[in-house]
Amino acid sequence: MYLFIFTLLLVIFQFVNSKSIIESYDEKLTNYMKVNTELKDSIQQIEDQKSTDLYTFRFDTNDDAMTYWENQGYRISEFVPFIKDELMSLNVYDTEDHPLVPYASMTENKMLIDQIRMLNHKWIIASFTDGTYWGEMILSYEIEDKKSLKFKVLESILYQP
User: Fold this and answer.
1) How confident is the model over 127-149, as a mean pLDDT?
2) What is the pLDDT of residues 44-87, one digit of tens each?
3) Of 2, 39, 76, 96, which one's alpha carbon is 20 to 30 angstroms from that of 85?
4) CA distances to 59, 60, 127, 144 from 65, in Å
5) What are the boundaries of each domain within the chain?
6) CB-based contacts of 102: which residues, under 8 Å, 6+ apart?
7) CB of 108 closer than 8 Å to CB of 73
8) Structure confidence at residue 106 (pLDDT)
9) SS3 string of the chain?
């Protein structure tokens, strides 16, 4: 009889204990799933913002800028490489100073434009470096005679190493 009562108490204890453990795990799992869903939503919002930011201030996603040059008689597929090639061709120069970069090199290397982003139909942002010093500048550009480009530095900055 004592054995039966002891066994019954042991089974009841195990049942209650197991039930509380399972409820605790279930509550934790539910909380983790809720937090996971919130984090996934946050990640999706960040990715959406990131993709929006990637397409902001880009010539190739600015329909008004592309339409402007198309109305002038240019093909965009040839226009963008033409602008970039003309700007990069200015890196080949014989003088001490770059034709566009408003800062002289402070090393033995020449200042060179290394990255270009066309913002719209009038402005370009470009970075330049001599290997040690670097900076950025905003340029305006105009096309004269359908093949001649005219660049003008609007603003520039040189960063300290």
Assistant:
1) 89
2) 988 888 776 666 778 878 888 889 888 988 888 888 888 899 99
3) 96
4) 7, 8, 22, 17
5) 1-54, 59-159
6) 137, 153, 156
7) no
8) 87
9) CHHHHHHHHHHHHHHHHHHHHHHHHHHHHHHHHHHHHHHHHHHHHHHHHHHHHHCCCCHHHCHHHHHHHHHCCCCHHHHHHHHHHHHHHCCCCCCCCCCCCCCCCCCCCCCEEEEEEECCCCEEEEEEECCCCEEEEEEEEEEECCCEEEEEEEEEEEECC
Decide: 119 and 142 in contact? Cβ < 8 Å. Answer: no
Give burial (CB, 10 Å; 0-12/13-18/19+) of 128. buried
Contact yes or no for 109/130 (Cβ under 8 A): yes
When pLDDT is cut at 50, 70 and 90, the band that residue 127 belongs to is very high
CA distance 77 to 145: 19
Distance (Å, whole) CA 135 – CA 128: 5
CB 117 within 8 A of CB 125: yes
| Distance between CA atoms of residues 127 and 129, nearest Å | 7
